[in-house]
């Protein structure tokens, strides 16, 4: 049993590492192939640029070496937890990312809590009140919310809750727990709105499918209270697709905070990435992308790992 | 067996000895051309085993579920379903739930479908009114070995026979007075089937339960129960004691059911399947619903609205030939001979007629 568990974990980890390795190469190659020459930027612009100066900069930053050698050097450093120095700020990339990442992570976690609670809640409501006006209202409202781009939602939220009502601050990320929550509420809400439609609809459909099972009718025929039927049979059995969808949406959010961070003046990794790409800051862009991919893989792996707990038959089906 | 009485059952105003009393139950579904159930009447007394027999779609499961106040969506019911003297039709909300949670319990046809695959066996029993310790006792009482371990297991870890015992334990957890066994043994292999049947019979004797036993197997029904109701196209066509039904079936459909299944030591006798097909919900009948498939069909059968005709031994059958007292009750022998002749001359006659009506 312990051996089987160790084998499963080992296989999972190997898969994660292989995915990360492949992703790291794609990221490195993509940034390498991006238009624009970082050496020009590093040398201080095209004015007064001599070929000798350019070659010197290239050699200094190892930009004259072939792609694979550069990749190997970068990977070797990454494995030793050295992400290099930013071309632009000359700081350690790790420090830059570490300073920005908590804001993004808090934003994504907050948005996840919001879309899970609101989205799953709305989906459960729609499923329980299926084919009534409640169902239609949930579908209509979430579709409307999803069809509004997040930057429009952000502006609307700011002008209403921030400016008119003055309930929430309009910009910045705040300090302390309450300050952070207050500052991140509007950004998290505008991030979560787009996910509501997807999550609530997946929840509704999974619940409707689960409610059609014979064991639900059997429980009803045995006089099990309706509350318990919805909670312990319908929702419990619908959790698989719901958790998968919530995990995927959350993982996607890690890479999709740019617009909201910009709109609310938050300094997270999204705005860091955009800045790095605009200034050909290779090490920063690569590190941020690698972090996003890692986050995505970690979240999806966790979701996979949770599945046997949700459905004990999955474990038996796996070899 | 039908004489067993349980003291204290049947409150004031109840029929003297009926635990379940269904009277003229008619059930209509939107979009169906005929009622799913048409004037179904039956009774089950405490301690009695009553079988409900018929082909798929004859309405036997629907009748049994009516005892729980469980109807298909959109169904409109009329008539009366009384359990222990109290009307079940028209119960809603909490009172309906309370009725289902006590008194009547259904043993499902497919135990694997009746149990939530992601929850533990113990949860299934606790949900139906047992405590944790009672759950272990219940599993032991239905003959499941190692009950302490079973309560922590999940359905996919148990065999079909074990699961059917779990489902029966779940039905008993509510301390019911009436068990509805809906094809409870049909999905099991023969030895397990015999075990489960013996278990149900033992439980009935032990707790004085009424048992409504639903099956498509007329031989099993006649051997296992005290009384048998035969259903066809949503109607009860014959209601007899098991012995009388087996030795002298009165309704041509019952006779057909008996001659179309093989019996031991009877290998020389040819089997006679009933021609045609069981009617669907889109088939309507101006007269007797069985007339298209019946070897004894008379012109009057096409328009004869079925009524229950009393038989000398106390049973009833809904057949025009029995209503007409001049005519002798057809015997099994004459049925077989005449039907063989009919099948020989026009093999697909019944099917063709049925399809014409269908269109």
From TrEMBL, chain A:
<feature type="transmembrane region" description="Helical">
    <location>
        <begin position="284"/>
        <end position="303"/>
    </location>
</feature>
<keyword id="KW-0812">Transmembrane</keyword>
<dbReference type="InterPro" id="IPR035906">
    <property type="entry name" value="MetI-like_sf"/>
</dbReference>
<keyword id="KW-0472">Membrane</keyword>
<dbReference type="Pfam" id="PF19300">
    <property type="entry name" value="BPD_transp_1_N"/>
</dbReference>
<feature type="domain" description="ABC transmembrane type-1">
    <location>
        <begin position="101"/>
        <end position="303"/>
    </location>
</feature>
<feature type="transmembrane region" description="Helical">
    <location>
        <begin position="238"/>
        <end position="264"/>
    </location>
</feature>
<keyword id="KW-0813">Transport</keyword>
<dbReference type="InterPro" id="IPR045621">
    <property type="entry name" value="BPD_transp_1_N"/>
</dbReference>
<feature type="transmembrane region" description="Helical">
    <location>
        <begin position="181"/>
        <end position="199"/>
    </location>
</feature>
<protein>
    <submittedName>
        <fullName>ABC transporter permease</fullName>
    </submittedName>
</protein>
<comment type="similarity">
    <text>Belongs to the binding-protein-dependent transport system permease family.</text>
</comment>
<keyword id="KW-1003">Cell membrane</keyword>
<keyword id="KW-1133">Transmembrane helix</keyword>
<feature type="transmembrane region" description="Helical">
    <location>
        <begin position="107"/>
        <end position="128"/>
    </location>
</feature>
<dbReference type="InterPro" id="IPR000515">
    <property type="entry name" value="MetI-like"/>
</dbReference>
<feature type="transmembrane region" description="Helical">
    <location>
        <begin position="137"/>
        <end position="161"/>
    </location>
</feature>
<dbReference type="Pfam" id="PF00528">
    <property type="entry name" value="BPD_transp_1"/>
</dbReference>
Automatic annotation (TrEMBL), chain B:
<keyword id="KW-0813">Transport</keyword>
<feature type="domain" description="ABC transporter">
    <location>
        <begin position="20"/>
        <end position="258"/>
    </location>
</feature>
<dbReference type="InterPro" id="IPR017871">
    <property type="entry name" value="ABC_transporter-like_CS"/>
</dbReference>
<dbReference type="InterPro" id="IPR050388">
    <property type="entry name" value="ABC_Ni/Peptide_Import"/>
</dbReference>
<dbReference type="Pfam" id="PF00005">
    <property type="entry name" value="ABC_tran"/>
</dbReference>
<keyword id="KW-1003">Cell membrane</keyword>
<dbReference type="GO" id="GO:0005524">
    <property type="term" value="F:ATP binding"/>
</dbReference>
<dbReference type="InterPro" id="IPR013563">
    <property type="entry name" value="Oligopep_ABC_C"/>
</dbReference>
<keyword id="KW-0067">ATP-binding</keyword>
<protein>
    <submittedName>
        <fullName>ABC transporter ATP-binding protein</fullName>
    </submittedName>
</protein>
<dbReference type="InterPro" id="IPR003593">
    <property type="entry name" value="AAA+_ATPase"/>
</dbReference>
<keyword id="KW-0472">Membrane</keyword>
<feature type="compositionally biased region" description="Polar residues">
    <location>
        <begin position="346"/>
        <end position="359"/>
    </location>
</feature>
<keyword id="KW-0547">Nucleotide-binding</keyword>
<feature type="region of interest" description="Disordered">
    <location>
        <begin position="327"/>
        <end position="359"/>
    </location>
</feature>
<dbReference type="Pfam" id="PF08352">
    <property type="entry name" value="oligo_HPY"/>
</dbReference>
<comment type="similarity">
    <text>Belongs to the ABC transporter superfamily.</text>
</comment>
<dbReference type="InterPro" id="IPR003439">
    <property type="entry name" value="ABC_transporter-like_ATP-bd"/>
</dbReference>
<dbReference type="InterPro" id="IPR027417">
    <property type="entry name" value="P-loop_NTPase"/>
</dbReference>
